[in-house]
Specification:
The chain has 8 helices and 6 strands; from the N terminus they run ααβαβαβααβββαα. It is of the alpha/beta class.
Amino acid sequence: MSQLHPNLDIDQANQDLQGKSPEEIVAWALTQAKNPIITTNFRPYESAILHLVAKQRPDITVLWVDSGYNTDATYQFANKLIRDLDLNVVTYIPKQTAAHRDSTMNGIPGIDNPQHGEFTEQVKLEPFRRALDELKPDVWFNAIRKDQTEFRQGLDVLSLSKDGVLKVAPLFEKTDADLDVYLDEHNLPNEHDYFDPTKVEESRECGLHTQL
C-alpha cells in the first residue's frame, strides 16, 4: 500500500489491465494522477511512449536525465522529438561534468571496473533521485518492456517505486515489431545509434528500475 495511492489495490489493478491497449492503460493511469511524469532517455522506440502519453496529456512533465554521454544521433533525435511533439521536457544533469569525470576515472569505466558503480551513481541514479525528490510525481510513466531483460520479465504493467510512486509501463507487453507498426501508423521517427554507458549490454539493468 502506498501513501500516494492509499486506495489502490495494485494486484487487482494489474489484473484489470490485462489485455487492455496501451491507450487504455494510459487513460486509466491518468485518472490516478495528480502530478504525473514520463521519463525518457531518447533510446530506440522512445517516440512511441512519448507520443502515446503526450497525446492524452500534452502538458505532462517529461523528465530527461542527460548523462552527457549520448551519441550525436541521440541528441539530434531528442531535439526532433521535443520539437515535433511539443514536449514539456525538464532536463536533469549530473553534478559533475563529463570532462571532469573522464579525467578522474580515465574515461568511461567498463562494467567490470570497480568504478562502474560510482559512475552509474553519478551520471544516472543521483540525478534521477534528485529529480523525483524535486518534481514529487505520483505517477511515473516509463517505457520498460517485458522482453528487455530477465529482471523485467518478473514485473508487470504497474509497480510501485520505493517511495510509493505508481510506475506505469503501457508498452510492457509489446515487442519491437509491435512498436514498428505503431511508429509507422503515426509517422514517428526512430533512432538506433544509442549507447548507454551505465548498461553497455542491453540485457543489463543499470539500477534505475531495481533501486528506485
